[in-house]
Amino acid sequence: MNNHSFKKKELKAEILAVSFSLLMAMILLILILLWYKWKKKKLKFREDFELPLFSLSTITRATNNFSVNNKIGEGGFGPVFTANLLE
């Protein structure tokens, strides 16, 4: 084996090592960015579902004292009423 072919193989090995390292760095960067985006979306998702709290008197007024006419169904936690909270 001559010196020239040894240097060629060594150069190929170096190019392969650098290419593989860059590929792994890019994959890691993409995974970090996706994780960050997912985390940010998860936090935003939580914020979107903050429900307002209403007093019993407000709910009683909005459902016309839980009138049968405002009952729209029955769920696992009891009757479900429609309410007009804009008045």
Automatic annotation (TrEMBL):
<keyword id="KW-1133">Transmembrane helix</keyword>
<feature type="transmembrane region" description="Helical">
    <location>
        <begin position="15"/>
        <end position="36"/>
    </location>
</feature>
<keyword id="KW-0067">ATP-binding</keyword>
<dbReference type="InterPro" id="IPR011009">
    <property type="entry name" value="Kinase-like_dom_sf"/>
</dbReference>
<keyword id="KW-0808">Transferase</keyword>
<protein>
    <submittedName>
        <fullName>Uncharacterized protein</fullName>
    </submittedName>
</protein>
<keyword id="KW-0723">Serine/threonine-protein kinase</keyword>
<keyword id="KW-0547">Nucleotide-binding</keyword>
<keyword id="KW-0812">Transmembrane</keyword>
<dbReference type="GO" id="GO:0004674">
    <property type="term" value="F:protein serine/threonine kinase activity"/>
</dbReference>
<keyword id="KW-0418">Kinase</keyword>
<keyword id="KW-0472">Membrane</keyword>
<dbReference type="GO" id="GO:0005886">
    <property type="term" value="C:plasma membrane"/>
</dbReference>
<dbReference type="GO" id="GO:0005524">
    <property type="term" value="F:ATP binding"/>
</dbReference>
